[in-house]
Amino acid sequence: MQKASQFIRSKVQPLFLYWIGAVTFLFFFVSGCDQLYSEKQDVVLARAGNSYLYRSELRENITVFSSKTDSIIQSENYINNWARKQLLFDQAIINLDIETQKELDELVNSYRSDLWSRSYKEFIVKSNIDTVISKAEVEAFYQENQNNFRLNEIMVNLRYIALPSENIDLLEIKNKLIRFQEEDVRFLDSLTFQFNSYELKDSLWLAKRELIRTLPIINEDNFEDYLKKSQFFLVEDAFEVYLLFVNDYILRNEVAPLVSVENTIRKIVFNKRKLDFIKQFDKEILQDAIQTKKFQLYR
After folding, report:
1. Within 13 Å and on the Cβ side, how many CA atoms surround 39?
2. What is the CATH number of the domain that holds 186?
3. What span, in angstroms and rounded, lies between the C-alpha atoms of 3 and 27?
4. Which domain holds residue 42?
5. Number of folded domains in the chain?
6. Whole-angstrom Cα distance, residue 134 to residue 22?
7. CA neighbours within 13 Å on the CB side: how many for 204?
8. For the chain, which ranges sit under pLDDT 70?
9. Does 76 lie in the same domain as 166?
10. Are the beta carbons of 134 and 262 closer than 8 angstroms?
11. Tens-digit pLDDT profile for residues 182-225
């Protein structure tokens, strides 16, 4: 064991010193090579087995740092990783049996083919599929699949404002939040810099867990106290005043409101459109190849 350690040190230490010296040289060489060589020339910087590392590859794969030390370290790491990969690959070629190498080659070829095919299909999809999902499509899907949108927990539709308790506009803000006409919304929007937190959209639906997480004044014990339609609540704690107006709520197992699942539906409709397009594309590419004699079956 001691002999093995001595052998490793005898091999690794000179190699390490060699790389440090080589990388130091490479840093200055790479940074100044434009003055010595034209862009059309490329230079071999390292060899590992039968593989060669060229200046262009090193330049393409390392970031230029302002610090020479950082650039040297990065160059050293890249070269060492490159050499390690090449040497391992060479050892694999020598030591893996032919059958295993054949299986690996088949996997590589299959992966390459799949990768190129998927990338090409994505390109075709982006070029040909309309990404706009109309409101009518969303509503139609919602109506046809309502059983898929039944709630696992209560959802509440509300608007709220949390603000410091000493706010001098508290009464007016309260009245505007309750009435909530167009001019009221504009007024409240103009005061949002005074609010600690707020949500002023009538389209906001929060599930029970989200509501408890969003508003500290609501918890498991008092949650049902707020299940009152068209009801205003004013709750004050030691630091803030919370103004809530509950528009509506939907119980568990009822169908979720369209606005709360609209984005999900758009994704579903688009994915279905995408899958249908790819299915048709796969069919047509064979038909076209048969017609143009690029694909033939021999029986």
Report:
1. 0
2. 3.10.50
3. 36
4. 2-95
5. 2
6. 62
7. 16
8. 1-40, 64-66
9. no
10. no
11. 999 999 999 999 999 999 988 899 999 999 999 999 999 999 99
